[in-house]
Amino acid sequence: MTSDAISPAELASFPLTAIGSLASKPKKVAGLREMGVENVLDLLTDYPRRYLDRTRQASIRDLVPGDEAMVIATVARISSRRTRGRPPKTLVTAEISDGSGYLRVSFFNQGWRERQLPVGTEAVFFGKVEVFQGRKQLSNPVVDLIGGNRTGRIVPLYAQSEKHRITTWEIGSWVEAALAKCRKRGLAEPLADSVLDRFDFVDRTAALWGIHVPQSMAEVEAARKRLVFDELLRVQLALALRKRALERTAKGMEHDTSGELVRRFHDRLAFPLTGAQSRVIDEITADLGGRHPMHRLLQGDVGAGKTVVAVSALLTAVQGGHQGALMAPTEVLAEQHHAGIAALLADLTVPGDADEGSLFEGMTSERPLRVELLTNRTPAAARRKLAEALANGSVDILIGTHAL
After folding, report:
1. In 3-state terms, what secondary structure has residue 76?
2. Per-residue pLDDT at 149 exceeds 60
3. Would the pLDDT of 92 be above 70?
4. Which of 141, 169, 174 is closest to 155 using CA atoms?
5. Distance, CA of 177 to chain centre
6. Rounded CA separation 72/40 (Å)
7. pTM attached to this predicted model
8. Residues 6 or more apart from 348 whose CB is under 8 A from it?
9. Is 202 exposed, middle or buried (0-12, 13-18, 19+ CB in 10 A)?
């Protein structure tokens, strides 16, 4: 690869007409655009939907009823007729042969197949083998036309378009031409050699050649492994950039992390926190005390202590005068969490206001920390009372399902 290797952005800037065989075919270019292929990058990332392995193709003579099969055969006869019934349907029937025998192929309500498959056409037929009137047949099989010079052992099959008269072998030839055009400068490799070695990846150039012009199915798998990684990497990078942008622009709530409520909760536990729990609680506390919204995934094995960590985060909000909510995916799990968390927080108190006009007016009082449950099973009257309690701040932690 040269220092001026072609980047994906540069590939996207190359029009389809940069491929010599497409330069004089405006209808084909227009058809590709309607198929979502706007430029050379789109073409190279329009991967084959499957492959024809000529070393493993089935012969008509050996087809077994009930099995799915792929055969390469030539159309010997084809005809169409209108069926009886209301409304009438078009039935196209073809006889195909691969030298080992003949097979009937039927297409229902696909009159255009008669134009697509004139006598002498070689194609790949894929479908379930059935028996009708004592003969084996394929009904409404998937058909891929092959032709040109696509005669390797492994033939890629692309999504083709009857509407735009674009065949799989045409797409394959354009892809090969595009790859050949990129060969001199090479394609930019975004991954370091150490990453390629660590995961046993082929480079990006080899991956694109391997997915489009493979010499073996092993080459296809190696290419797919690398290209799947690239797609996942792009998604992760986009999410990371989005998170960074959000952190720069979004204004979060700076929670008070200096209170004693969380410490009192930890002191009351019947077991000491593990090192991992302490570390993660400290990280979450730091996030909650920051100026940006927290985005964090907490994961761990069953019994690892995730609930204690989550409750510590909820209490960080509560000790600053706010409220916390925990959403569970099912009512059963929400009820279990409510029972468990309520037991963990039993006897914990939070600051409360003294009654106006009492002897202790103006002095801070303590009240029990309040944990409530909200699910679809919660009666309407109880929901209204819960809504009022949430509004006046007397509920500290609410646990529920999507009813939240």
Report:
1. strand
2. no
3. yes
4. 169
5. 30
6. 30
7. 0.60
8. 261, 264, 265, 268, 368, 369
9. middle
Is a pLDDT exceeding 90 seen at residue 127?
Answer: no
Percent above pLDDT 70 for the chain: 94
For residues 135 and 158, what is the distance between their CA atoms, to the nearest angstrom?
Answer: 30
Name the least confident of 21-30, 103-112, 152-161, 207-216: 152-161
150 versus 80: the higher-pLDDT residue is: 80
Q: How many angstroms separate the CA atoms of 180 and 147, rounded?
A: 20
Q: How far apart are CA 221 and CA 211, in angstroms?
A: 8
Instruction: Say yes or no to pLDDT of 108 above 70.
Output: yes
85 CB contacts (<8 Å, ≥6 apart)? Answer: none
The DSSP code sequence of 25-89 is -HHHHHHHHHTT--BHHHHHTS--SEEEEGGGPPPGGG--TTSEEEEEEEEEEEEEEEPSSSS--
Determine how many CB atoms are found less than 10 A away from the CB of residue 255: 21
Instruction: Round to whole Å and give the CA distance between 138 and 68.
Output: 9
Half-sphere exposure of 90 (CA within 13 A, CB side): 10
- Structure tokens, 122: 């070689």
Task: Please say if the pLDDT value at position 362 is more than 90.
Answer: no
Q: Please tell me whether residue 228 adopts helix, strand or coil conformation.
A: helix
CB of 169 closer than 8 Å to CB of 193? no
Going by C-alpha positions, the residue among 151, 106, 109, 146 that lies closest to residue 127 is: 106
**Averaged pLDDT, 3-12:** 91
C-beta atoms surrounding 192 within 10 Å = 9
AA letter at 175: V
Distance CA 404, CA 399 (A): 8
Burial class (CB in 10 A: 0-12, 13-18, 19+), 356: exposed
* Lowest-pLDDT range of 182-191, 201-210, 288-297: 288-297
pLDDT at 296: 86
Please give the Cα distance from 33 to 195 (Å, whole number). 35
What's the whole-number mean pLDDT along residues 277-297?
90
Residue by residue, DSSP assigns 116-140 as HS-TT-EEEEEEEEEEETTEEEEES
Structure-block tokens of residue 16: 């389809």
Both structure tokens of 205: 């150039």
